[in-house]
Amino acid sequence: MFSKIIIASERTPVANNILNYIASLRNSGMKECLLVQCLNPYETNVNITAYYASLFEENLERQKAILEEAGYQVETRIVSGLMKNEINQIAVDEDFDLIVVAAEEHFINGEIFSGGIAHEVIHKAGKPVLIVRLSDDTCERINRTKECGISSHILFPTDFSDNAKLAYGYVKELAEKSAKNVTIVHIQDHSKSLAHRIKGLEGVDKQKLEKFKNQLRFDTMDEEKLQELKQEVLLNKVNEERLAALKEEISGNAEVNVDLFFGSPTREILRLIKELKIPLVVMGSQGKGYIKEVFLGSVSHNIIEHSTASILLIPANREEV
């Protein structure tokens, strides 16, 4: 599935933990990796550029040794340019299977926020991206057992879009090879109802605002409303059947659970990650419904920024975007 990977190398305090994490994935079929670091293309001082290049070379050699010890075939490369552009271009041009980036974590009022290279790379990714986020427990497990436990429980949120189908293919492979538990969920987004949209209508004219408000004022269940409820019940049934069908497609020894939830996709996904102690979320980067907003709106940013789990993002086919 991912035999050839490209890694955004960094000189950060968590770099070694990330490399140990990648080293622990060697038995999952990963064989070749390229470590990439980027020099600032706007730096005009030759001496400064040479100094940083020397530091990068030393850093890459240390990182290369860690991965070679785990059995990888490793190459290193220093390129001039921005990481978000260079790593994506190399990944596509040289047909890498996976881009690996670390999620930088910042804590504000006790909550996790992440950014840095990960956010830059995913916006232009033409290949699957693994955003690695490691808890203290995971780091301790890797140091103790050389296993990261990434496949102990996989969460797959789906909106049944074409991109979600692509992502599901990776879920099936993970389930067949190494996953112990897989949870497949669909969240019916009630935030898209009219009542939840009124607060965002300040920018429209008063006539449209009144029209929306009037639509909210109903004292009795008219025929139209009954039909809407009927359609929602039918949709729920269809979604339940879709989830059941996805469950049946998975082979291997993994225990598979499916769930249908109602509410905010962001809140529900983050709740499940926390409650189920999910180490890996697999999802499509584009689609319909809430997944369409991945990297484009608040849902995606909240999931990426607040998730305590690593995230495997599968990009949509270019012709579908």
Please tell me about this protein's structure.
This protein is an alpha/beta fold. The protein has two domains: 1-149, HUPs (Rossmann fold, 3-Layer(aba) Sandwich), CATH 3.40.50.620; 151-305, Rossmann fold. 43% of the residues lie in helices and 22% in strands. It has eleven helices and twelve strands. It has helices spanning 15-23, 46-69, 83-93, 117-122, 136-145, 162-177, 194-197, 206-216, 223-249, 265-275, 298-306; strands spanning 4-8, 32-39, 73-80, 98-102, 104-108, 111-115, 129-132, 154-157, 181-189, 255-263, 280-284, 310-314. Strands 3-2-1-4-7-12-11-8-9-10 form a ten-stranded mixed β-sheet, sandwiched between helices. It has a two-stranded antiparallel sheet with strand order 5-6. Strand 8, helix 6 and strand 9 form a beta-alpha-beta unit. Helix 1 runs parallel beside helix 2 (46-69) and helix 10 runs parallel beside helix 11 (298-306). It is elongated. Mean pLDDT is 77; it is low at 106-114, 193-204, 216-221 and 289-297.
Task: Explain briefly what this protein structure is.
About 45% of the residues lie in helices and about 20% in strands.
